[in-house]
Amino acid sequence: MELSTAAWMFHDTRLMLCVLLAIASIILLISATRLPPFLSILIGTFIAGVGAGLPPEEVAKAFSKGAGAILGEAGIIIALGAMLGALMAESGAADRIATTLLGLGKGRSLPWVMALVAMVIGLPLFFEVGLVMMVPIIFVMARRSNQPLLKIAIPALAGMTTLHALMPPHPGPLIAVGALHADLGLTMLLGFCLAVPAVMLAGPIYGNWLSRRLHVEAPADIGALFSAPPKAPRQPSFAISLLIILLPVILMLGSTLAKIALPTESTLGLTLKFLGEPLIALALAVIAAVICLGWAAGMPRADVGNTLRKAIAPIAVLLLTIGAGGGLKQTMLDAGVSQTISKVAEGAHMPYLLLAWLIAVALRQATGSATVATTTTAGILAPMMAGLAAPQSSLVALAIGAGSVFFCHVNDAGFWMVREYFGLQLKQTIWVWSVLQTIVSVVGLVGTLVLWHFLT
């Protein structure tokens, strides 16, 4: 028994050291040798996988599987989002929306308006979908208002990522709600109570502070794509422009409501679920943009086609990098990092909320996946939560969601999306994205602890 325990301890210690070594290697390769992120992550993956005991060929298979899975899930969505953003920029729709938003908020109030808009758009959308939709608005708003890019971007990022972490029907909170048998409506209400202060602190307040200390120019390729002056002979109306950008939001919200309120096999329910799939919703938005923002606005069909084609080139590096991050995540999962952290957690004795948050933090740091962190943590804690009251179960689910976004780094797809879209260096991305998410995570934990005190 002692020998098996010693063997277990050696394997787990080696595995966690390999994870840390891989992350350190990736950071060093990118920052010191200036290797492309894709190649750096690939090298880091083999360091971690082989060091953890996986045969090299298994590491290669795991990397390919993980890269293919995340590109199949997010790659096409990002490509469609880039097309939609380019059409909105060149047709003048993004300019029209920016003009209206500038009328609602100027100067100091503008970041707060951006945070509110991002929360509305981000309520039913996955973060990746919300980001590709918001990027053209962010660039145009920064150009039109003469405000620092980060002052506009950070509130938008905070609004979307906070709802993704704390508000059902996003996958993470919804998985935790199901596993812990928490009340969905109560969890949504408490999640909103936590989301508001988290967005305020991580968004406008942090954005104002950071933008004065970190100056970032729009990247030449993507910035030119989304910040170009409108080329359409007739600028679309605000109503059409808003409808196009909200079309995926409406379709995905309809899908969510169908899953909650309609019978599983009803024709209406199945139709709404189909239309609300992120791939379908964004594809329909692109088609609607081609017709309403391009052809109907007087743009020649050849120009519309060229706009769609040139939107793809600037995101090629981003897609490769995101795929590499998915490969690293899958390799770590195949090496058994989730089981290692689960074994440690099962022997821990601490308050439920803190335990839930810490397990989710550890899993997210090791795997780079909020969904893996949420699912595994909820599975570990579910047997312990059987006798909890409804508010307590909801708060544990929210603590898991908060922990799943703590200090997201080089194994996180969102990290590389933010880096590439805004043309950041590695250190800058940590300040913009990793610290922002840490603020959301810590505010979420503190908020759940406060609500636990008052509700139990």
UniProtKB/TrEMBL annotation:
Name where it mostly resides: membrane
Tell me the first and last residues of the signal peptide: none
Decide whether keyword Cell membrane is in the record.
yes
Which GO molecular-function terms appear in the entry? gluconate transmembrane transporter activity
The protein's UniProt keywords, in alphabetical order, are:
Cell membrane, Membrane, Transmembrane, Transmembrane helix, Transport
Membrane-spanning residues where?
A: 12-32, 38-55, 67-89, 109-142, 149-167, 187-206, 238-258, 278-299, 311-328, 348-363, 370-390, 396-418, 430-455
What is the protein name stated in its UniProt record? Gluconate transporter
Organism field? Pseudomonas trivialis
> What family does the entry list?
Belongs to the GntP permease family.
